[in-house]
Amino acid sequence: MRQAGRYLPEYREIRSKVSFLELTKTPELCAEVTLQPIDRLDVDAAILFSDILVVFDAMGVDVHFNPAPEIERPVRTAADVARLRWGDPREDVRYVLDAVQACKRALAERVPLIGFCGAPFTTLSYLVEGKGSRDYQHIKGMMFSEPALFHRLMESMTELLCTYLGGQVEAGVDALQVFDSWAGALSPADYREHVWPHMRRLVEHVRTLGVPLIAFVRGNANLLQQSAELGADVIGVDWTIDFAQAIEIVGSDRVVQGNLDPQILLGPEELIERRARAVLDAAKGARAHIFNLGHGISRYTDPAKARLLVDVVHGYGA
Ligand code: CP3
């Protein structure tokens, strides 16, 4: 959950010299940044430093980061759609796969490396909205008024992302995470009808790749049941739901990841310790648990507090 990022002074140091996009396109720097939290925090896995939106390079779509992403020409009309290119991310986003290899070399098997992509709906939403959104009027407008076009775009996007994830596995990632960060924009019925079947296809494809998959469907506790039904190895749980309740919904036979509110790290040490333990206590009801934040870490987090959190988790039950 953005464990490499702006809350780390060593990350800001590198970012003072290169832009975010240059950073994502320079494999050796990606590896350096990916490893920064491993050294400082002692976390048990590395997540590839990149972004879900760089895949637009395979579609001929320009995106800028300032630092929030913005697309120059959002895809809204039939003519916009006709202009899209559906390239091969293994070629057009080769720099990400090179970054995977650089990370693996630099990690030297110290911890596993997690690759990732945005889910079809979240990725397509950025393409259509052009930037972060409050009401998602363009993507939902397309979904409701031109369902056939929406469906076709979701199919093409899913295929592109499957190829991309396959490339990441070939390049050496040990696990994959899919971020459906914008799923909460939809009602459960609309997620079921318009999004779930595409996600399911992606999950089934990843099953053939031979690495475990974490599915993170964010923003709506009402989608947790559907998220579990995707059949991914690990069900990511965001911070908005009580963890014990989440485990009850997905079933005690499933592996869960989550779900501390990242902003808790802005609080005092005593609170961090207490809330982390509450998550770990609740997780006893699950088959297995990957401790994690329930969304991206805040840039205002004191790295010492993040380290304290890791130490609390590692010391739990010892
Ligand atoms: O988790 C990690 O440590 C790996 C790196 C990673 C980044 N983005 C780095 C990043 C990952 C996994 C992502 C995924 C991502 N990107 C998602 C899905 C996860 C989520 O947060 O829901 C989304 C929606 C994006 C799109 C995106 N990229 C946004 C909204 C922003 C702005 C973030 C902000 O805090 O302002 C980015 C830029 C971005 N991606 C940064 C980082 C470290 C900050 C850029 C900078 O250094 O200036």
Strand order of the largest sheet: 1-4-5-6-7-8-9
Helicity range:
40-55%
How large is the count of helical segments?
14
Task: Let me know the number of strands.
Answer: 9
Give the N-terminus to C-terminus distance in angstroms: 26 Å
Bound molecules: coproporphyrinogen III
- Low-confidence spans: pLDDT under 50, at least 5 residues? none
On the 0 to 100 scale, the average pLDDT is 97
Structural class computed from helices and strand pairing = alpha/beta
**Total number of domains:** 2
SSE series: HHHEEEHHHEHHHEHEHEHEHEH
The backbone outline, from C-alpha atoms, is globular
Determine and state the CATH class of the largest domain: Alpha Beta
CATH architectural group of the largest domain: Alpha-Beta Barrel
The CATH topology name of the largest domain reads: TIM Barrel
Largest sheet: 7 strands, parallel
Write structural notes for this entry.
The chain is an alpha/beta fold and 318 residues long. The chain has two domains: 9-236, TIM Barrel (Alpha-Beta Barrel); 258-318, no CATH class. The chain is 49% helix and 13% strand. The strands form two sheets. It has a seven-stranded parallel beta sheet. A two-stranded antiparallel sheet has the order 2-3. Helix 13 (269-282) links the parallel strand 8 (255-260) and strand 9. Helix 3 packs across helix 6 (94-107), helix 8 packs across helix 9 (147-171) and helix 13 (269-282) packs across helix 14 (303-315). The longest helix has 25 residues, at 147-171. It is globular, with a radius of gyration of 19 Å. The mean pLDDT is 97. The site of coproporphyrinogen III has 24 residues, from loops. Coproporphyrinogen III (CP3) binds next to loops.
